[in-house]
Structures are given as structure tokens and as C-alpha cells.
Amino acid sequence: MIIELSDITKTYPGTESPALKDVSFEVEAGQIVTLLGPSGCGKTTLLRLIAGLERPDSGVINIRGQEVAAENSWIPPEKRGVGMVFQDYALFPHLSVEDNLAFGLEDRDQDKIMETLELVGLADHATKNPAELSGGQQQRVALARALVRDPVVVLLDEPFSNLDMSLREQMRRDVTRIIRESEATAIFVTHDQKEALSISDKIILMNHGVVEQKGTPREIYELPETTFVASFVGQSNLLEGTIGSDAESVVTEIGTIPCHHTHGKQPGEKVTISVRPESFELDSQGSIQGVIKEVVYKGNTIDAIIDVNNTSHSLLIHIHPEIKAERGDQVSVKVLPDFVAVIER
Ligand code: ATP
Fold it and tell me: Tell me: the pLDDT tens digits for 291-333?
């Protein structure tokens, strides 16, 4: 493990509730890990603790096997080998791109600087000033400045939030490719669930200072462990029910829903399930009948809200855009089990 946080708790002076409570997670070398969660959940505080810009009240932080923060140990930020890329890039405006990379280096290694600029696709801009570059290019300079120091880990705090939508997608791809090519380890902070799903090897999903769930993007999306995870990452229908006699289904008010992810729950046990909108398919043989109440055309899919007949339940379902679905249509729907999971907490 290149980074290990164990039971980190932190309360800022003058505040009552802790910004972080017993947070533990690990990062392996070469991984891209994302700290995801709503505003105020403690993501930036975690990043600052790893960088050494804050000190935990309790808990231990290990970087490359060395205790950098614990009750009786403290390694200052400059000795941790951590690179940071800030939201506003924090480049020196009066220095050229190459001098920005060289700033603070004990031995300027021009070959390495040019190699790193090559990696981020900016070798031709080495002598320009940051103001002569676009936002996306400035961001790549900030990344290059972190990478040229061969950091143990690069920390990136909402690095794409200042970019417009189309550039953001491009930069996400570029930055993750550069990090992969340089074999660096990276921790991103983001509140954007799509971003986290698309760039991460592992997501640490936070809420109110605690870890709600950690896992691969697929685990987080397909097997949400809490109702918060099910609704924060993607959209979900949450239904109450009991485990069916075959232990592979859940009996609910809208019918029996097939479910492979029951986490060992026994027949008859009360559970909440998360059913993703893509688990539903319009099918004349489908067991759920209802009326389409709302249709939102999204290009690649249609979001439809269906009022299930004879119940007070509404379902959000995705319909293939090829299908002509209209408000007021009476439809039958079947459920595919792949995106159905019992919520554990
Ligand atoms: P955002 O996405 O809005 O940046 P975040 O998830 O990064 O939020 P943090 O900035 O880590 O959250 O803040 C966590 C909690 O700690 C919040 O309640 C915040 O108000 C509080 N907090 C952060 N910094 C300080 C500080 N210097 N002094 C007091 N409280 C702070």
C-alpha cells in the first residue's frame, strides 16, 4: 500500500461536529482513487491531511510505509513527496512554463523538464507565460509541475471544475492518460459522480465526514450499500420488500423482483432494494403494468416515470430512444436482475 489512512478523525477549532470521523482507506501504487461526495463532506480536508496541510486529531496516515501523521509523529508537507494540483492551477504568472516546472527544484534537470512537457503535450510551449495558454493547457502545466518531481502521489482538488463542459471531458481523458502513462498514483477530489465513475480505479464515497462505501466504480454503481450511495451515484428506485422463498428475488408491492445480490439475506427477511432505471425493459409480457406519467428525451436514452397500476409507486425507467413512448401510454415492464441489489445499511 502506498498510502494508508486509519481511523482519521478531525474537528476544526470552533466547530462542533467533526469534519471527518474514523475515516480509513488505502491506495495502491499506480491507482487513481477518487474522493467523491457532496459539498462539505470532508473531501478537501482529507486531501489536506494527506498533504500535511492539516493535522488529524486522531488516527494514523502512512505514506510509502512511513508514518507521516500520528499521535507522536509528524512529517512536514515538503518531506512527504506529495504533488498537488489546485483548482486554480496556482502557476507563477511571471515565469515561463519551463521555469514554472523548475521552480523550487534543487537541481534543474532540463531534459526531465522537457520530457515531462512532452508527456503533457506542451513541449512547444516551454518558453511561453501561463497567460498565453488556454485553461486546459494551464492545467496540464500544473500537472507537469507536480509530475516532474516524481511524487509518491499527486493530489488533485476538483481539477476540472473551472473548465467548460466540452473541455472538461477532454481534460478528464487527457489527465488520466498522462497519469497512467507516467505510472503515477493519484487521488482526485470531485463532487461529480460521472467524473468519479469514468476516471477511477477506486472510489471513496463520503457523506457527513464518514466513508459511506469504497470500491470500484462498478461495485459502487451495481452494488450500492446504502440508500445514500444508491441515490448519489446515478439514479435509483428504492423499494421495500421481503426476500422471496427462492432467496433470488424480493417480493414488493409492485410484484416480485428478481435479485441476485441479496448478501446472504434469508427468505422472509425485510429489505430495501435499489433498482437502477436501466433494469427495466418495456415488454408486453412484463409483470409490472403502469401508465407513463412523464417522458424526458435525452438523446441516448429516454427517462420515463411510470405510475404502477393499483399502487402508489412511481418508477423511473430508461427506455431505448428508438421506442416511441408517450405520456399516458399504458405499458408493461419487466425487470432484469443485473442492476438490482439489496441495500445493506
Ligand atoms: P466542498 O466540495 O464544498 O469543497 P468538501 O467535501 O471538500 O466540500 P471540506 O472542505 O473538507 O469539504 O469541509 C468539511 C467540513 O469542514 C465542512 O463542514 C466545512 O465547513 C468544515 N471546514 C473546512 N475547513 C474549515 C476550516 N478551516 N475551519 C472550520 N471549518 C472548516
Answer: 999 999 999 999 999 999 999 999 999 999 999 889 999 999 9
Three-state SS letters, the chain: CCEEEEEEEECCCCCCCCCEEEEEEEECCCCEEEEECCCCCCHHHHHHHHHCCCCCCEEEEEECCEEEEECCEECCHHHCCEEEECCCCCCCCCCCHHHHHHCCCCCCCHHHHHHHHHHCCCHHHCCCCHHHCCHHHHHHHHHHHHHCCCCCEEEEECCCCCCCHHHHHHHHHHHHHHHHHCCCCEEEEECCHHHHHHHCCEEEEEECCEEEEEECHHHHHHCCCCHHHHHHCCCCEEEEEEECCCCCEEEECCEEEECCECCCCCCCCEEEEEECHHHEEECCCCCEEEEEEEEEECCCCEEEEEEECCCCCEEEEEECCCCCCCCCCEEEEEECHHHEEECCC
18: Cβ below 6 Å to ligand 1? no
34 touches ligand 1 (CB under 6 Å): no
Domains along the chain?
3-227 (3.40.50.300), 235-343 (2.40.50.140)
Summarised one tens digit per residue, pLDDT across range 56-95 is: 999 999 999 999 999 999 999 999 999 999 877 889 999 9
Does the pLDDT at position 182 exceed 90? no
With vertex at residue 69, the alpha carbon angle to CA 71 and CA 195, rounded to the nearest 5 degrees, is: 135
CA of 40 to the centre of ligand 1 (A): 5
Residue with the three cell numbers 429516454 = 302
Task: State the distance from the centre of ligand 1 to the C-alpha of 38, rounded, in angstroms.
Answer: 11
Please identify, by atom number, the ligand 1 atom nearest to the C-alpha of residue 35.
6
| Cα 289 from chain centroid (whole Å) | 35
Cross-strand pairs, 316: 305
Contacts of 182 (CB under 8 A, 6+ apart): 119, 147
**Which protein residue has the closest C-alpha to ligand 1 atom 29?**
12
C-alpha cell at 74: 509528524
